[in-house]
Amino acid sequence: MSQALKGQRILLCVGGGIAAYKSLELVRRLRDAGAQVQVAMTAGAQQFVTALSFQALSGQPTRTSLWDSAAEAAMGHIELARWASRVLIAPATADLLAHLAHGLADDLVTTLALATTAPISVCPAMNHIMWKHPATQANLATLRARGVQVIGPEDGPLAEGESGPGRLSQPDAIVAALAGAVPADAPVQGPLAGLHVVVSAGPTYEDLDPVRYLGNRSSGKMGFAVAQAAARRGAAVTLVAGPVTLETPPGVTRVDVRSAAQMRAAVFGAFPADIYIGAAAVADYTPRMPAPNKIKKSSESLALDLVRTPDILAEVAASEQPLKLVVGFAAETENVAEYARGKLIAKRLDLIVANRVGIPDGGFESDRNAMTAFWKEGQREFPCAPKTELAEALVELIGERLRA
């Protein structure tokens, strides 16, 4: 059990019920299992247990308000949502379950439940009649259908002197159930722990008219794999994705865009960050003025008036953002090493990853690739392998370069 939870970043959300006192022991058990714990409380929870008690046990400030001026950019729900690798709500009252099922967000806890991409577990605790009510059971069915893990409740004596189902599960049982739900490839403590990593991935589409666009063959697979590998090593990851149909990696915050201009805005909007990895294939040119209506076939040839798009990677590297590392990608059809080192110097990057495209079993649209990473003092070859494996190796290299 301790191995399953070791390095996990667990956000414990405490609801407003008398069982909130058990959550104090739950913090201790989670930390004994090797997890990092931060606590968020509803207003009701604060009527039963103090925030200071949780702070003393977790070693972290307890969050109680959606309007925390001390939080990152005064947006505590976003900060916490990005930090968590799992969200645990204990106790989860009938009212809190109803809010979650219906997507309501009127306090810190319910808002971060909507803002997180981390797996959510709920531990119900309430009067046995409330537990059996059809509305509560319907809300639980909705949450289960969304993939929420439900732990408990137990059958036994309740605070009001009655007995029945609705008693919060014991802390040891909750920790065991949580450990059993953690997949083998879940995020672990690693060299990127505590860092915010922004990854851009996929193509951009530059509209010619309401029907047509200029695009490229990037699938986004490499960038998505890099985002997942970074999250597994403890980073809070924001993934800015061009138009692709890939699943969002676990624990990753995703922002979907279409054009180069939108991608630039999303990347800079995700800052501040510690690392930027520009894996996207951003269009170099875009129509000066997209046609408002479909361009009709009226002649044997068509001339397009194109203008340069912003060089997002170069702008990030030249910006005043306090980044620890800027990583670029270079997809080339020839002279791969020469062009890659040229981009490394011209754009003032810390690291550039180059690969050859337009070849069988590699490059765009393929699940496999081969690549070479270059930095000022050296390089490293990565032979042909699945992109998921390449991403793991690349993120390990990024961790090494951080320590260099």
Automatic annotation (TrEMBL):
Gene3D superfamilies assigned = CoaB-like (3.40.50.10300), Flavin prenyltransferase-like (3.40.50.1950)
User: DNA/pantothenate metabolism flavoprotein C-terminal domain spans which residues?
Assistant: 192-399
GO biological process terms, alphabetically, are: coenzyme A biosynthetic process; pantothenate catabolic process
- The keyword NADP is annotated on this UniProt entry: no
Segments for region (Phosphopantothenoylcysteine decarboxylase)? 1-196
Alphabetically list the UniProt keywords. Decarboxylase, Flavoprotein, FMN, Ligase, Lyase, Magnesium, Metal-binding, Multifunctional enzyme
Report residue spans for region: Phosphopantothenate--cysteine ligase: 197-404
Kindly state one GO CC term assigned in the UniProt record.
Answer: phosphopantothenoylcysteine decarboxylase complex
Its pathway is: Cofactor biosynthesis; coenzyme A biosynthesis; CoA from (R)-pantothenate: step 2/5; Cofactor biosynthesis; coenzyme A biosynthesis; CoA from (R)-pantothenate: step 3/5
**Residue span(s) of domain Flavoprotein:** 9-177
Top-rank taxon:
Bacteria
Positions binding CTP in this chain are D284, K294, P310, D311, I312, L313, F329, K343, K347
Q: Write down the chemical reaction(s) this protein catalyses.
A: N-[(R)-4-phosphopantothenoyl]-L-cysteine + H(+) = (R)-4'-phosphopantetheine + CO2; (R)-4'-phosphopantothenate + L-cysteine + CTP = N-[(R)-4-phosphopantothenoyl]-L-cysteine + CMP + diphosphate + H(+)
EC numbers for this chain: 4.1.1.36, 6.3.2.5
Q: From the UniProt record, which GO molecular function terms apply? A: FMN binding; metal ion binding; phosphopantothenate--cysteine ligase activity; phosphopantothenoylcysteine decarboxylase activity
Identify the InterPro entries for this entry: CoaB-like_sf (IPR035929), CoaBC (IPR005252), DNA/pantothenate-metab_flavo_C (IPR007085), Flavin_trans-like (IPR036551), Flavoprotein (IPR003382)
Q: Which cofactors does this protein require? A: FMN; Mg(2+)
Please name the Pfam families in this protein's record: DFP, Flavoprotein
For this chain's record, the cofactor binding note is:
Binds 1 FMN per subunit.
* NCBIfam families named in the record: coaBC_dfp
Protein's job: Catalyzes two sequential steps in the biosynthesis of coenzyme A. In the first step cysteine is conjugated to 4'-phosphopantothenate to form 4-phosphopantothenoylcysteine. In the second step the latter compound is decarboxylated to form 4'-phosphopantotheine. Catalyzes two steps in the biosynthesis of coenzyme A. In the first step cysteine is conjugated to 4'-phosphopantothenate to form 4-phosphopantothenoylcysteine, in the latter compound is decarboxylated to form 4'-phosphopantotheine.
Task: Name the protein family.
Answer: In the N-terminal section; belongs to the HFCD (homo-oligomeric flavin containing Cys decarboxylase) superfamily. In the C-terminal section; belongs to the PPC synthetase family.
What is the recorded name of this protein?
Coenzyme A biosynthesis bifunctional protein CoaBC
- Please report the organism this UniProt entry assigns to the protein: Pseudoxanthomonas spadix (strain BD-a59)
